[in-house]
Automatic annotation (TrEMBL):
GO terms for cellular component: basolateral plasma membrane. Monocarboxylate transporter selective for taurine. May associate with BSG/CD147 or EMB/GP70 ancillary proteins to mediate facilitative efflux or influx of taurine across the plasma membrane. The transport is pH- and sodium-independent. Rather low-affinity, is likely effective for taurine transport in tissues where taurine is present at high concentrations. Residues 45-475 form the Major facilitator superfamily (MFS) profile domain. It catalyses: taurine(out) = taurine(in). Forms functional complexes with BSG/CD147 or EMB/GP70 ancillary proteins. Residues 233-257, 474-503 are annotated as: Disordered. It is found in: Basolateral cell membrane. This is Monocarboxylate transporter 7. Pfam families: MFS_1. It is a multi-pass membrane protein.
Length: 523
């Protein structure tokens, strides 16, 4: 084994370290966790932000662009709207349903290998779907395989990104999540033009090859450890004390070591999420006891009904309203362009508003609900363009903030985000499974693509009600005190009354003594 000289110390005493150890140390510095004394508000977090941008392009961006192939799949396999829409529904369901599995694997093996595996599955599922002989084959390839890959790639990346930022978290996550909007803006017209030359099957092969870039994004994910400075100083002092104790023959330092560990725990609690969870499952199911989290999860459940169906049916809705097929594909681009502005603006607004951030999100959800209703009422080209722009804008504000909002103290806080995000997205999965098929059934029954938008509006309206209850529940206004708390309060009141009665008895006795002394003195 080759050795390389290493100089250290004041006298530069030379020793030799094995080259393998040097390479191990170098790889540890490049691939190991980043250690900061506090949340860095950047640093390697910018590389994670770029990775998240590309992951958004390859997951949500491509998934919402598949509406370009809706009519082709119906004609190729002779299926109805509702049957074809199950391809996207199963993908969304698996995407969200396997969120706890994704977070458990991330907490057990780290973010990097899970995201790399996700990139492999996404690419594999999309490419194999090009060779499908029936719609059932696409249920497996796109629905299950690609859906699982999207979950493995998306959740660990957004969770790690939130840990690199604190004050700028809302702004950075909003900008990075705009990758979804850029993908829809570019992919919709590009895929529509490309399939005319090479067909929809080869388009899926090209798309799946591009999605393999998620593998490189996974390699950029370095975990973060926050180790406050006071803890480091105490450890250095402790090591110095240990050396002097060895020289003087002192061998017992258990008390001081315990103090250092206690101080370190206190510093770690103040700094927020410092190290990966030590839970066996890697998930914190105790959040299900939090009323605010329950209402927020119900908000996400109902809001998901309006997240995917509009992008899936907007092209066919436009064609049914007299818009040419080539022009109708640009409706997705209008949505995507407006969504970019929505994502950027909401990040700036949330960084400056003095009120609860959930209230800002509530306003955006209410306006989004009204826009979904307007889709079913508009019958002209420019009306559809305005609706697409408004929907894209408010969709950008909601979709880019509803998951990072978990890190805010209004919901669960940054310390519980890594474990609660899996539970939150898992609850969303059932609406993701029902949303597109429900719209498809309404379209098949009414023969009107506008009917699909009514189901989206209904779900968004229910989500607004649930989100409005998060704040009062968090502040305790909607919580009924438990029996244990009531018993504790009654016990405290009894003790207080007994203390007051004791003081009054004391004063009464004191007054009697004083009166007796005055009487004796008069006699």
């Amino acid at each position: 084994m080759t050795e390389e000289p290493v100089e250290y110390g004041r006298d530069r005493l030379c020793c030799r370290r094995p080259a393998a150890a040097m390479r191990t140390s170098y790889s540890q510095r490049c691939l190991g966790p980043n250690v900061y004394p506090e949340v860095p508000e950047g640093g390697w977090g910018w590389a994670v932000a770029v990775a998240f941008f590309l992951v958004e392009v390859c997951t949500y961006g491509t998934l919402k662009s598949l509406g370009v192939f809706l009519q082709d799949l119906m004609e190729e396999f002779g299926e109805s709207n509702s049957r074809v829409s199950w391809v996207f529904s199963i993908c969304v369901f698996v995407f969200t349903f396997t969120a706890p599995l994704s977070m458990m694997l991330s907490n057990r093996f780290g973010f990097r290998p899970v995201v790399v595996m996700g990139g492999i599955l996404i690419s594999l599922g999309t490419i194999t779907s090009a060779f499908s002989s029936s719609i059932n084959d696409m249920y497996i390839s796109v629905g299950v395989v690609s859906g699982l890959g999207c979950c493995f790639a998306f959740l660990p990346t957004v969770t790690l990104l939130a840990q690199y930022f604190s004050r700028q978290r809302a702004l950075v996550t909003s900008v990075a999540s705009s990758g979804e909007s850029f993908a829809i803006f570019a992919f919709a017209p590009a895929l529509f033009a490309l399939k005319k030359h090479i067909g929809w099957r080869y388009c899926l092969v090209v798309l799946g090859t591009f999605q393999a870039s998620v593998i490189g994004c996974g390699l950029l994910l370095r975990p973060i450890i926050i180790e406050p400075e006071p803890l480091k100083e105490q450890e250095n002092e402790q090591s110095g004390t240990s050396m002097s104790s060895e020289d003087s023959g002192v061998t017992s330092l258990s008390t001081s070591n315990e103090d250092v560990r206690t101080a370190g725990a206190e510093n770690q609690a103040e700094a927020g999420p410092l190290r990966p969870s030590t839970s066996k499952l890697g998930l914190d199911f105790s959040v299900l006891k939090d009323g605010a989290f329950i209402w927020y999860s119900l908000f996400g459940l109902f809001a998901t009904l309006g997240f995917f169906a509009p992008q899936l049916y907007i092209i066919e809705l436009s064609k049914s309203r007299g818009v040419e097929a080539g022009v109708a594909s640009y409706m997705l681009s209008v949505m995507a362009g407006a969504e970019i502005f929505g994502r950027l603006s909401i990040g700036v607004v949330l960084n400056k508003v003095p009120c609860r951030k959930t209230l800002v999100l509530l306003g955006c959800v209410i306006l989004l609900c009204l826009v979904l209703v307007a889709f079913a009422l508009v019958w002209e080209f420019w009306g559809l363009v305005v609706c697409c722009a408004l929907y894209g804008y408010f969709m950008g504000t909601v979709s880019s903030t509803h998951i990072p909002m978990l890190a805010e103290e209004d919901v669960v806080g940054i310390e519980k985000m890594a474990s609660s995000v899996g539970v939150y997205v898992f609850i969303q999965s059932f609406a993701g499974l029902a949303g597109p098929p429900l719209g498809g059934v309404l379209v098949d029954v009414t023969k009107n693509y506008g009917a699909a938008f009514y189901s989206c509006a209904a779900g968004m309206g229910l989500s607004a009600i649930c989100l409005a209850l998060v704040g009062p529940t968090k502040s305790g206004m909607c919580q009924r005190p438990s029996r244990h708390e009531e018993e504790g309060r009654s016990t405290e009141e009894e003790e207080k009354m007994s203390q007051d009665s004791g003081q009054s008895d004391f004063l009464e006795v004191d007054f009697r003594h004083a009166a007796h002394r005055d009487h004796v003195s008069v006699i």
